[in-house]
Request: fold
Amino acid sequence: MSRHRGTSMQVIGLCRFSYPAIGGFQVEHESVEDRIAYLYAPERLEERFRYFETITLPGIRAQSDPEFTFLILTGESLPDIYRQRLQALVADIPQAVILAYPPGEHRGTMQKVINLHRVASHEPCLQFRLDDDDAVAFTYVEKLRDAARDVAALLRNHRHVAIDFNQGYIARPGPEGIDAMPIQTPYWTPALALMLRPDVKTSVMNYSHGKLFRAMPTVTFTGEDMMLRGFNRFNDSRFKKAAKPAALTPLDAKGELLFQMTYGIDSDHVRRVFSAPR
Reply:
């Protein structure tokens, strides 16, 4: 049961599940068709589904404050077999909304998607983004609302404020379980949110997460594990400066319990899913 003290602040999370945006990728492609072929290659999609099921969704499913919306944006061209699989994975998550859009300019499309789900309010809107291989702690929405109340006065003179939870883990799941390493790193996307005044129509996706401090006040909270970034072969470029694969070590029993109690991630479930035939 949620322990939050009551607020009308709307919370919206956005997850791009292999959406073929124009722009917004580190891997470049010659055409939209090339990007779609890359995103929907069976081997890549299988890995994305395994991460999404075992890493991302457990924490979303178990949020202590259930009053939020979790938008999952994919492409209209996602094959039906994968669309049905995605729907099945989130069928028991009432906050999840699957949206299928045609290819479009990245930031403009993300802003449109989020704004279509904002409700008219005199309160600020809280927005976060989550990649389909990352996770937040099951207390994230609750702690985000608490933090927003603490720093709300900053909106008197600013259009938006970034709320950054900087502590957690890099993790790589596999057939043997989870390899991980602890981190304290500011402005990584998991557990990083924007608080926007009601009249502001830009979104959390309009800003480069690593450069937020150039555009608005930012407040960083630490001391509690709140975020997790997935490490896999399709996104290793994100970690060239942060960690090498050898720096990740297998979780022991204590670490597996911590992941279960913090993110809802079950290491036995990880082993089963990643051991299944492709």
User: Anything to note?
Assistant: The helical segments are 32-39, 42-61, 80-89, 106-116, 140-151, 253-263, 267-275. The longest strand covers residues 167-174.
